[in-house]
Design a protein that fits this description.
Oligomer: single chain
Number of domains: 1
Structural class: alpha/beta
Mean pLDDT: 84
CATH topology: Metallo-beta-lactamase, Chain A
Radius of gyration: 16 Å
Distance between the termini: 28 Å
Largest sheet: 7 strands, mixed
Number of strands: 7
CATH superfamily: Ribonuclease Z/Hydroxyacylglutathione hydrolase-like
Strand order of the largest sheet: 1-2-3-4-5-6-7
């Protein structure tokens, strides 16, 4: 795990080939995306390094519902009572995170993209493809969220439910 301050109050955590963020302001913390299931350990270490705790987290914001973005989301929601925010279109993915559209079957990528083998190995080791479904989410219906850091929702093409490459 590495922790890098990419801008004032915005910290990027890298682990298992996945990036996710902690945004801090005077009101507390917002976690943006939740990595893979084993990123829970990275969250705890990052909070320690920032001198913060789970009680400082006010929200978890998911940019979309793919398996490599919701890793510890249910654990944070259920153990620390942190609300999980996600756009309406991605709510189904939070319950079935591997069921997004692909142009080719996953096995095609695994059998032909040899340079991705270290990433695939890390994903298997860190249970990336098997996150716990999120039992309860708060649907994002506005552009600005009333959470620490005041993030703005900017819809981008090619992400979220129905994602195609």
């Amino acid at each position: 795990m590495s922790l890098t301050e990419v801008a004032e109050g915005i910290h990027r955590i890298d682990d298992a080939y996945v990036n996710w963020y902690i945004v801090e302001d005077e009101e507390g913390l917002t976690v943006v995306d939740a990595g893979v299931p084993t990123s829970w350990r990275s969250l705890r270490r990052a909070l320690d390094r920032l001198g913060r705790g789970l009680e400082d987290i006010r929200a978890l914001l998911l940019t979309h519902g793919h398996f490599d973005h919701i890793g510890f989301a249910e654990q944070l929601r259920s153990e620390a009572s942190v609300p999980v925010y996600v756009h309406d279109n991605d709510v189904p993915l939070t319950r079935h995170p591997r069921q997004y559209g692909r142009n080719r079957p996953l096995t095609w990528y695994l059998l032909t993209q040899f340079k991705a083998l270290p990433m695939v190995t890390a994903f298997v080791k860190n249970r990336a493809w098997w996150p716990r479904p999120i039992e309860e989410v708060t649907r994002i219906r506005t552009a600005e969220l009333d959470v620490p850091g005041r993030p703005l929702r900017l819809p981008l093409p090619r992400e979220g439910h129905g994602h195609r490459r």
